Prior knowledge:
Blueprint: E1 4-11, E2 25-32, E3 37-41, H1 48-56, E4 63-68, E5 71-72, E6 83-86, H2 98-107, H3 113-127, H4 142-154, E7 161-165, H5 173-190, E8 194-198, H6 201-207, E9 210-215, E10 218-223, H7 225-230, H8 235-240, E11 247-250, E12 252-254, E13 257-260, E14 263-265, E15 278-282, E16 287-290, E17 294-303, E18 308-314, E19 317-323, E20 333-338, E21 344-347, E22 350-351
Helix pairs in contact: 2-3, 2-4, 4-5
Amino acid sequence: MAKITLSNLRHSYMPNPTGPDDYALKEIDLDWQDGGAYALLGPSGCGKSTLLNIISGLLVPSEGRILFDDRDVTDLPPDQRNIAQVFQFPVIYDTMTVRNNLAFPLRNRGVDEARIAQRVAEIATMLEVEEMLDVRASHLSPDNKQKISMGRGLVRDDVNVVMFDEPLTVIDPHLKWKLRSKLKELHQRVRATMIYVTHDQTEALTFADQVVVMQEGEVVQIGTPVELFERPQHTFVGHFIGSPGMNVLPVVEADGRATFEGETVALEGNIKGQGGRTELGIRPEFVTFAEKGLEARVRKVSDVGRHSVVEAMVGDTRVKAVVEGDVPEQGAAVHLNFAPEHTRLYRDGWIATEVSS
């Protein structure tokens, strides 16, 4: 297990990059603490896999350094980094038994057979596959195959980091929650440094202590799941995380005030900076109906189970609200209120309000 430091990291697949658009990874500086659970979250093409491949040693970055416990490993090949990786598709040997699959990484390193037996038994207990140890891997269900793939990554106790690259992609939806829970439990038991790459916010937020949100090769926010939800630092984070995502509304800024559809809106604090494209960010969970407020008309009501999502039009702008209990009818005239402590201004995508002290 190791602390991982990424220092001034950039990468381009072009031989002679000349500008920011030529870089698949823009400048990244990160510290991941020993034993932490981390997630790289973002849409396809944002640079997640490129970053994972650089950490594992499959790619050498164009610029910057990678350190494990302050030891520079930038130019070391994968086999000298002590990394375990779990991929989208289970990497196991179908002709081997579960026992031999789990033992293989240790035998490959010449570990004593008595120690191998001990570690295989420990991992099998953690994974709850003791009864499958003598079953051929070819006879396993997809979710159990992925369990064994995870076990192969965890069986070594000398790894610096265990990396998961979209490990639940091929798993049936009704089984995903079981593997997510198992993976979280495994981290709490072994306390290995783990990095989980995914485009699925549910997987990232339920697994990780800290989530790194990426967009177009850039880290736009690092934080706990609560921080990402309650105070997105960028409109992309607000839109990408949450179901439904944050309302991002056009706003006019003047004299330290924000005006939406002709009405002044109270913000969480003072506005920072000047110029640029300004937008208002408010999550649907913090939009309520009241006797007074922004005049709107209900466009659509969607019952999603535990609550309803109401879409209302304020002028020509659509605003979503999450409502528990009774909801207004489609076409009804209503008034909307935004909770000031959760209402903030964004300038060119980045947060531009200060929290009031």
